[in-house]
């Protein structure tokens, strides 16, 4: 064992729970982060998918992220409270081209508040706008996203699970915020560079997109 490994000590583990409507890209986001891949076909998550990914934060700190990808249809389910319980981080994910997926985050967040109201430590909550590769189809205005963050003290993220744009940085920032580690601009830019994915050739599933174009938040 090297000196640096001895100094690191045991890995830190963080539980991150990904919540939001079906088709907003939660599984694609988790898969892109954990496995650096993007699935061509939309497949509904039933119940829960689970991913593990080890990252290194400044100070040579090893952190293992447990990413709990919760199916969009579980909002009224009996198991949802158990999925959320003990999470250090919550990702509220929506599709920037789908107003309803953004509006419904209020319901998801209410469940989080109910589960965590008596917890000694509150989870960090991140608002994640997915599908920025479809910026030309955006219906959820950026200022509405930012206002929701400010009102609830969320951290703010915009990503594309399809291209990989900002995905690793999103999870890295969330983990760093939970652990009280400050990432400087150079570290964030380096992270973007190291994890830049190329997935533009992969067709995005269009379910639930076209009919949303007339809506504007």
TrEMBL record:
Main localization of the protein described in the UniProt heading: membrane
Catalysed conversion reaction: GTP + H2O = GDP + phosphate + H(+)
Subcellular location, record wording: Cell membrane; Cytoplasm, Cytoskeleton, Cilium basal body; Nucleus
InterPro entries attached to this UniProt entry: P-loop_NTPase (IPR027417), Small_GTP-bd (IPR005225), Small_GTPase (IPR001806)
Family: Belongs to the small GTPase superfamily. Rab family.
Role according to the record: The small GTPases Rab are key regulators of intracellular membrane trafficking, from the formation of transport vesicles to their fusion with membranes. Rabs cycle between an inactive GDP-bound form and an active GTP-bound form that is able to recruit to membranes different sets of downstream effectors directly responsible for vesicle formation, movement, tethering and fusion. RAB28 is required for shedding and phagocytosis of cone cell outer segments (OS) discs in the retina. Also participates in nuclear factor kappa-B p65/RELA nuclear transport in endothelial cells.
Descriptive protein name: Ras-related protein Rab-28
């Amino acid at each position: 064992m090297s000196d640096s490994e001895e100094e690191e000590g045991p890995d830190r583990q963080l539980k991150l729970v990904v919540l939001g409507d079906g088709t907003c890209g939660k599984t694609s986001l988790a898969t892109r982060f954990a496995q650096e891949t993007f699935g061509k076909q939309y497949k509904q998550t039933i119940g829960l998918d689970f991913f593990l990914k080890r990252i290194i934060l400044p100070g040579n700190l090893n952190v293992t992220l447990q990413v709990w990808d919760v199916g969009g249809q579980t909002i009224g389910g009996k198991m949802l409270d158990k999925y959320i319980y003990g999470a250090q981080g919550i990702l509220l994910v929506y599709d920037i081209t789908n107003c309803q997926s953004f509006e419904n985050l209020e319901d998801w967040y209410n469940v989080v508040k109910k589960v965590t109201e008596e917890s000694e430590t509150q989870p960090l909550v991140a608002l994640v706008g997915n599908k920025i590769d479809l910026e030309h189809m955006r219906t959820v205005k950026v200022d509405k996203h930012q206002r929701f963050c400010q009102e609830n003290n969320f951290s703010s993220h915009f990503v594309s699970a399809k291209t990989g744009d900002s995905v690793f940085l999103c999870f890295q920032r969330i983990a760093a915020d939970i652990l009280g580690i400050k990432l400087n601009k150079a570290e964030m830019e380096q992270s973007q560079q190291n994890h830049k994915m190329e997935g533009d050739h992969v067709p995005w599933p269009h379910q639930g997109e076209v009919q949303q174009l007339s809506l504007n938040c």
